Each structure stands twice: as structure tokens, then as C-alpha cells.
Amino acid sequence: MAKHCTIIQGGMGVGVSNWKLAQTVSKAGQLGVVSGTALDQILARRLQDGDQGGHMRRALEAFPFPVMAERILKTYFVSGGKPAGTPYKTIPLLAKDNPRELAELCIASNFAEVFLAREGHCNAVGINYLEKIQAALLPCIYGAMLAGVEYILMGAGIPLKIPGVLDLFAEHRRAEYGMHVVGALEGDNTTMHFNPADFTECKLGSLTRPKFLAIVSSNTLATTMVKKASGRVDGLIIEMRTAGGHNAPPRGKLQLTDAGEPIYGERDDIDIAKLRELGIPFWLAGGYGHPEKLREALSLGATGVQVGTAFEFASESGLREDYKRDLLQKVISGTAHVFTDPLASPTGFPFKVAQLEGTYSEPELYAARPRICNLGFLREAYRTSEGDIGYRCPAEPTTVYASKGGNAEDVVGRKCICNGLLANVGFPQVLNGQRVELGIVTAGDDLVSIAQFLPPGQSYYSALDVIAALEKGCSVLST
Ligand SMILES: Cc1cc2nc3c(=O)[nH]c(=O)nc-3n(C[C@H](O)[C@H](O)[C@H](O)COP(=O)(O)O)c2cc1C
Fold first, then answer.
1. Residues 87, 149: Cα–Cα separation, whole Å
2. How far apart are CA 315 and CA 24, in angstroms?
3. 243 CA closest ligand 1 atom index
4. Which residues contact ligand 1 via a Cβ below 6 A?
5. 219-244 residue pLDDT tens
């Protein structure tokens, strides 16, 4: 059986788990994971900011398709960076049939992030995707595989068909993927295709077929993934409701606490004994960023843990320095708070939001933002009255959403987290030439305990401090 790492540094989108963080973790012998979400935007914006350090250009130089790399540089690179206060270029939004420009950006950006994370060491690196951002999956996965990614981790949906895609891409063969289209009728064409041969500029040898880890939040889904996937599933990550980012909603009718957070019950708990019976490696995630929790996970038969929040605030992560500093200060002063918002995400899934002044966690700041959907990662595909595929997002202008058949009630409380998440990592769009998008920070309930990683007398910590602290949970077990 393959030897896996004990600690997985979770993929945190957008751009929080960047190549620097993943490289640091992998170099230290644990599994560093980059977030594969919105890397097309991130590459384009890094280039427009002048590519400080030259990392993007270095990665593109190593890209096996130089003509494509040149096209991207020509389109997006701005020497010295775009003038402050000017907007980033718009990129076509993801759709069933992506324009070539977008597919190329997806391939090259995923290549670049993995290439950089793998630089300077021989250890494994993974990439995380959200199944629900379906229109990006095929070109992004192919790009990451071109760079030799060793693990693909995917949740936020049911990625049953992904293992088979990995098998095909390892041989540069054409793959397809069904898009979920609300209201689609039998016979509608909802299948996306990606043929590497349409993009390759030279003959390439076989690629490594990455290991596939499915991220799930229930025993049912765990069993389905193992029994029904289109190819090998190498492991499972079991994500509990305390985890940062999106959470699975509670089973049954949604009930809220007085503060407005979802109430979970026993039916939402995971049966670890049943999980063990599946006979494949599993990692526990959500509140496991503590040595004693790692020890507990190992004693339950887990291969290890996946940790996000602790790494989010490490100095190597992509989160804006001021957000890191201010939230760490709140943790130290005992005023940090994470709200599990049942409405904020356009996906309709609960989304954890760290409360921070100057971000869209403040209702009045969000209310002052004009409703607009200009990134579209979380758009929902629907069948139009003409039988075509349309796209809608409950964070777009209410009338527009309603005109696309969206339920006007669904827009209440929804926030444009696409723009917020890009702003979190230093790439805020400028609206109407004046309004700069603010961030919206997500973090797990574990936020309140991250000060444990601060070395004495220091106001920041490294991913290596997190690993050193967590590894104490392994060594106690083995003595
Ligand atoms: C800032 C942040 C962003 C996240 N983004 C994603 C994501 O894009 N995809 C995903 O599968 N999980 C995401 N997660 C979940 C992590 O990968 C990980 O499973 C989780 O953070 C573990 O729980 P913990 O936060 O208690 O350590 C995110 C978590 C955080 C804190």
C-alpha cells in the first residue's frame, strides 16, 4: 500500500493555499496542497501586478507549450504592474464551452502553481478542487498533471467521474464531464469535453496518474465514492462542520440558533467504525489542528489529519498580511469570532466567516457594494426557455437573477464571495474605477486557538511551527 503523509495542509481557496505554503509543507515532509480554485484569475492578476519575484514567468518558461505561454504573457503581463486604482482585465466567465483563451489560462495557471510548489524538493504536492466549479475541472486538472501533481483532492460535490478522467489524462486522452444543469431535459447536451491534443504543442510522454482523495462529510458519500467511482479512489478526507470554508448543511430541515447559525444534530455525526470498514486510507478534518487531535485521529485508525485554519494564518499563506495580523490580534485578545453563515455563499451551503472590521463580514459594508456578478465561479447552470444553457448567481442584481428564473427569495443575504476571496489574497477588483472590492475571510472554528503556534515573543508563525507542533501528536503515539 502507498505510504501517505500524516498531515495534509488543506487546499484553501482562493489563493490562501498558494505555492509558497504548499512548497514549505511538502519540503518538511508532509503533504502541501495548493488550491486549484480560480487560478486562472490569480495568474492573470499576478502578471498584471508585474509578477514580483518573477515566479510566474519562471513557471511559464518551464511550461511545455511555449507558444501558449507567450500568448498569456502578451495578454496579461504588465511590466512594473498596472497603475494603482485601475481594474484588472476581465476574463471570460467559465461556461460549458469555454473559449480557448480561458482554457489556456486554466491549463497554464494550474501548471504554474504546481510547478512552483514542487520546486526545490522531491516530495509530493497536491491540488484541491471544488467539484461544483465544474466548467473549470478538465483544463485545470490537465494543467496540474502536466506539472506532475501527485494528489488531487476534491469535495464540494460528488466527484464520482474524476478518477476515470485522471486515468485518461495520464495518457493525454480526451475526457468528458457532465455538467449539472438545473431543469435539463433528457437529450439536452450538457457534456463538457476536453481533448489535450487540441492544446499540446509537442509530443509528450505519459503523465503520472495522481492519487485521488475525495473530500466528504457523510458515511453515505464516503461509501458511494469508494463503490461507484469511475476509477481508483486512493483515500477519503472526512470533513467535519467545524472546518473553515464551506460546510455541508445539516441533515433535515434547517434550524438556526438564536444567533442565526445552523444547528447540527446526531444524524450529522460520522461513524468512524463504518468508515474503517471501507478499507481505504482516511484523514479527519475540521478542528484537527492540535497534537492531541492528531493523536486521537491516529488512534481511531485514520492515516492522519487535514488541517486548514492553522496554516491559513502561517506567514507563507496567501492571505493578506493585514488580515492575518488583525485576526491574530483578535485571537490573542480573546475577541476573535467565526460566524457560520447559512446564507452568505451563493452555493446555498453554510460558509464560515471570520468577523473582521473593514471586510464584507460587516453587513453595512456589504450593503454598500453594488450587486454584480463578474467572476462567476459559483454560477449555477440552468436550462433557458429556448433550451440553451444560461448561468445565474443569487449575488447578482436581483432583477437579473429573477429574469433568469431564479427565486427572488434566494438572493437575501447572499454575498459575492468570489470577489471577496480574491480580495483576501491581495487581488481586489476595482469597480467603476473607484470602489475597491473588500475581502471576506473564512476560517474554521479553530481560529480561536491559533495563537498556540506563535513562537515565544513573536507575533507571527510559520507553517513549520504548525507542523512541529502537530508532529508532537505522532511522536507520543509511537513511543
Ligand atoms: C480559508 C479556508 C479556505 C478553504 N477553502 C477550501 C476549498 O477551497 N476547498 C476545500 O475543499 N476546502 C477548503 N477549506 C477546508 C480545508 O481544506 C480543510 O479541510 C479545513 O480547513 C480543515 O479544518 P480546520 O480549518 O478546522 O483545520 C478551506 C478552509 C479554510 C480555512
1. 32
2. 11
3. 23
4. 10-13, 16, 35, 37, 128, 130, 155-156, 215, 239, 242-245, 285-287, 289, 306-309, 312, 442-444, 446
5. 999 999 999 999 999 999 999 999 98
Residue 479: per-residue pLDDT: 44
Q: Please give the distance, rounded to the nearest whole angstrom, from the Cα atom of residue 16 to the centre of ligand 1.
A: 10
Rounded to 5°, the CA angle 312-29-270 comes to 60
Q: Phi, psi (5° rounding) for residue 268?
A: -90, -5
SS3 78: coil
For 147-298, strand residue ranges (E) read 151-155, 175-178, 181-182, 191-194, 211-216, 235-239, 282-285
Residue 367 and residue 475: Cα distance in Å, rounded?
50
Q: Is the pLDDT of residue 478 over 80?
A: no
Question: Would you kindly state where each structural domain of the chain is located, as residue ranges?
Answer: 7-320+456-478
| Protein residue with its CA nearest to atom 6 in ligand 1 | 12
- Give pLDDT tens digits for 76-126: 999 999 998 899 999 999 999 999 999 999 999 999 999 999 999 999 999
Nearest to 406 by CA among 379, 446, 367: 379
Taking the centre of ligand 1 as the mean of its atom positions, its distance from the CA of residue 236, in whole angstroms, is 15
Which atom, in ligand 1's list, is nearest to the CA of 237? 19
Q: Ligand 1 atom 17: the closest Cα is on which residue?
A: 10
Cα(242) to centroid(ligand 1), Å: 10
CA of 128 to the centre of ligand 1 (A): 10
Atom of ligand 1 nearest to the CA of 445: 26
Distance (Å, whole) CA 306 – CA 272: 16
Q: Among the atoms of ligand 1, which is closest to the Cα of residue 153?
A: 11
Binned at pLDDT 50, 70 and 90, residue 181 comes out as very high
Assigned CATH class of 7-320+456-478: alpha beta
- Measured in angstroms, how far is the CA atom of residue 115 from the centroid of ligand 1? 22
Q: Is the pLDDT of residue 477 over 60?
A: no
pLDDT at 1 over 80: no
DSSP 83: P
Q: What is the mean pLDDT of residues 12-22?
A: 97
Q: How confident is the model at residue 341 (pLDDT cuts 50, 70, 90)?
A: very high
| Neighbouring residues of 384: CB distance < 8 A, sequence distance ≥ 6 | 390, 404
